[in-house]
TrEMBL record:
Keywords: Decarboxylase, Lyase, Pyridoxal phosphate. Gene3D superfamilies: Aspartate Aminotransferase, domain 1, Type I PLP-dependent aspartate aminotransferase-like (Major domain). Its cofactor is pyridoxal 5'-phosphate. PANTHER family: PTHR42735, SPHINGOSINE-1-PHOSPHATE LYASE 1 (PTHR42735:SF6). Belongs to the group II decarboxylase family. Sphingosine-1-phosphate lyase subfamily. NCBIfam families: tyr_de_CO2_Arch. This is Tyrosine decarboxylase MfnA. It comes from the Archaea. The modification N6-(pyridoxal phosphate)lysine is found at K217. It holds the Pfam family Pyridoxal_deC. The keyword Lyase applies. GO terms for molecular function: aspartate 1-decarboxylase activity; pyridoxal phosphate binding. One of its GO terms (biological process) is carboxylic acid metabolic process. The lineage of its organism: Archaea, Methanobacteriati, Methanobacteriota, Stenosarchaea group, Halobacteria.
């Protein structure tokens, strides 16, 4: 059988996936046939998963959050999921079961990823979607007005899918906790970028309860590798079900058999890139995004301010379609604006060619 060529990324402008780090590819290959869902049989990959969770804890600040000084660091509790959707669903499930009230609800800003719609549907939780402000961040007054004594979870997004916005996480955590609810941060995309900004978003600076951070997005691991972290062991405990015919006694993941490739590649990518490689990439992407925004503004386009490296612009009617016909994989936001996510494969050189095509089709 003829082999298909590997995915070429050079015209992919709106995806959150990218070329995995070479060490991540190699590690994935080695662990393709292992199952971290069965740790008694696949002990090596189970150990790697513990390392992955500890490393994600260091990146999000949880491993240094115990406040008891050197040597007192405590890793978070969590696992490598199939992606952000599974992580978000499991966070809602854990909060629902820990909160344990009839008719539980979930409060999310309208900028939240559609995985919360799936989670609410599957879990039988009422979804309360609240408005964002003029700059596309969660409106804290709207969040406060939506919570009540049946709210199980309040979600803040740290790196939104459409605009790359970071919600006011400390305020959202306070609102959640005042209502007796849990606070979850969806940093599926932003998690590997935020450590290099001055945002208070993680476990160290904001008292959040759980977090999504996906190695298969900006972490440069292979698909599938999402990350779910809890501050307290109770988050994982409530998800665990008994596993009578496995050596290990319980399982907290949603999937049963899972790919060890995602786990092993997460550790390999983080070993290779944390912190300097991720910092260098964040600084590069931030520079490229601001440069692209400037180039588009110079052409008279309306461009949203850049926060994390996503550029959203109004290119005018039909332009996205014409660019797609020329091979650019460009998608649009809910309101029809063009959106470029500056992932590691999106370089100035590629964007110069893109701007050349844009000038021709306009
Ligand atoms: N949370 C956030 C903030 C996300 O952006 C995404 C995915 C998820 C959770 C869900 O993660 P998984 O897909 O790993 O389950 N975001 C985009 C999505 O809807 C990625 C994207 C965006 C893909 C635009 C293609 C595209 O054209 O899949």
């Amino acid at each position: 059988m003829q082999q298909a060529a590997p995915q070429a990324f050079d015209r992919v402008l709106s995806s959150m996936c990218t070329d995995p780090h070479p060490a991540a590819r190699a590690a994935a290959e080695r662990f393709l046939a292992t199952n971290p869902g069965d740790p008694a049989t696949y002990a090596e990959v189970a150990d790697l998963e513990a390392r992955a969770v500890a490393a994600l804890g260091a990146i999000t600040g949880l491993a240094t959050a115990s406040g008891a000084g050197e040597g007192a660091e405590e890793p978070p509790h969590g696992y490598v999921t199939g992606g952000g959707t599974e992580a978000n669903l499991q966070a809602v499930r854990a909060a629902r079961d820990r909160r344990n009230v009839d008719g539980a609800n979930l409060v999310v800003p309208e900028s939240a990823h559609f995985s919360f719609t799936k989670a609410a549907d599957v879990l039988g939780v009422e979804l309360r979607t609240v408005s964002t402000d003029a700059d596309h961040r969660a409106d804290t007054d709207a969040v406060a007005a939506a919570v009540d004594d049946r709210t199980a979870l309040v979600v803040g997004v740290a790196g939104s899918t459409e605009y790359g916005r970071v919600d006011p996480i400390p305020e959202i955590a306070d609102i959640a906790h005042d209502a007796g609810a849990y606070c979850h941060v969806d940093a599926a995309w932003g998690g590997f970028l935020l450590p290099f900004t001055d945002h208070a978003w993680g476990f160290a600076d904001a008292p959040i309860d759980s977090l999504t951070i996906d190695p298969h997005k900006c972490g440069r691991a292979v698909i599938p590798a999402g990350g779910l972290l809890f501050r307290d062991a109770a988050g994982m405990d409530v998800l665990a079900v008994d596993t009578p015919y496995l050596e290990s006694r319980s399982q907290a993941s949603l999937a049963g058999t899972r790919s060890g490739a995602g786990v092993a590649s997460t550790v390999a990518a983080i070993d290779a890139l944390w912190p300097d490689g991720y910092r260098d990439e964040y600084e590069r992407a931030d520079g490229v995004a601001r440069w692209l925004a400037g180039e588009l503004r110079d052409r008279g386009q309306r461009v949203a301010d850049v926060e994390l490296p996503t550029v959203v612009a109004d290119l005018g009617g039909g332009v996205v379609e014409s660019l797609r016909e020329r091979g650019w994989r460009l998608s649009r936001t809910g309101c029809g604006l063009a959106r470029v996510v500056v992932m590691p494969h999106v370089t100035r050189k590629i964007l110069r060619a893109f701007l050349g095509d844009l000038d021709e089709v306009r």
